[in-house]
Model the fold of this input.
Amino acid sequence: MFNTLMILLADAAPGTTAPAGGTPQGGDSLFSNPIMFFLPVGIVLFYFLFLRPARKQEQEKAALLTTTKKNDKIITHSGIYGTVVSVSEKEDEIVVRVDDNVRLKMVKNSILRNLTNEEAVKEAKAAKGAKGAKDTKSPVIPSSTAVTTKDGGA
Done:
């Protein structure tokens, strides 16, 4: 594969000589080489498939960490369920109550999910869905008006 790539790049080089047939190959256009055509397409695909979703995940993670407050129920990356006791604004740490008289001090980045926020979002969607269902009236379907005939009559 590397050899093929090198051959294609050598063909696209501006100072190439004419082949043994005597007529030079057409290389005047920038996009005459397939690599030069697919390179911008590949860059755009790479951006939309990898960079943009990663940036979105980073923003969601930052929002999760900044909205965490006292008494939120959370799950850590290690699978520990707990309730936030305190959040340090100056340092990157929180204290989580796991059980009675068991408190863990950990960094904010160890939070995987905020269950309190997820429940609030779920309730808001349910309330919005219930409100939307009440507003729209179901259409009234008229009773059947089909005409029946006697056997053998058409």
